[in-house]
Amino acid sequence: MKRILLLALVVLSAVACKKITPETRIAQIGNFFDGKEDSYSAKLRQYTGDKQLDYLTLQLLGELGANDLWTVDEEELTSLVAEFSGKAKAPQISIISASLDDPTACALILEVLEAYKKIKIQHDNTIRAVFYAPAPDSTRPSGLASINQDLHESGEFNSFAIELSTRVDQPLHTFVLEESPAFAEKIIQVVPGYLAPLGDYQVVQGVPDPAWPLKGSIYRYPINPAELQKEAAAVTAFTFLLN
Has residue 122 got a pLDDT over 70? Predict the structure, then answer.
């Protein structure tokens, strides 16, 4: 299914039609974030524990209009999941995730969701925003393991998951695809050209981490906190193209 969606992007770029083209939508995304003030990260850095979850819940159900929201609990770990329904009748699930102990990454997810709502970006896949509890120590799994188990038990298909972090030791402005080489090659060929109006962004093949709790196609993006709105524009556009 993902291969069909990617080919459809190529067709859209070459055929004039009444629908909004990817180029036009990405220009709208760039304009939305150009000069935009930081809406969330300063407040998220003030909160921990239940207060942090309360703030996220308030934003997701109120300002951002999530269709559903729930917590995933395991022992002392509590993770939060917000769902934004797609247009497809039998939706695939697209995940965008960040650890709750990385407030800048969590804020960037909120920025992306705000752009989707205010620009009125339609998406076929159902988007799930995942704010997962970090592992209490190196021998214990994070809350992401429980979320992966829930996906498996419900029989839902994780089309791809974008993992955001300010702590990843990777080149900035680079999407790292833990994906089959054949499909990653197509994304590497197509996507950077669409992102070019927003800046010089790279898409590279990565090596899957067998210990990562969430299974499936994982796309990692390292965030530069000094240019949060520019980063939010890139992640919003990347997510739009994949959806």
Answer: yes
Backbone φ, ψ for residue 155 (5° rounding): 70, 20
Three-class secondary structure of residue 52 per DSSP:
helix
Q: Can you tell me the distance from the alpha carbon of 28 to that of 24, in angstroms, rounded to the nearest whole number? A: 6
| pLDDT bucket at 17, cuts 50 / 70 / 90 | very low
How far apart CA 131 and CA 111 sit, in angstroms, is: 14
Query: Residue 96 corresponds to which tokens in the numbers above?
Result: 């965008």
pTM value > 0.85: yes
What is the torsion angle, in degrees rounded to the nearest 10, for the CA atoms of residue 69, residue 74, residue 75 and residue 76?
-40
Pairing of β 158-165 and β 93-99: parallel
Please classify residue 242 by burial: count the beta carbons closer than 10 Å to its beta carbon, then call 0-12 exposed, 13-18 middle and 19+ buried.
buried
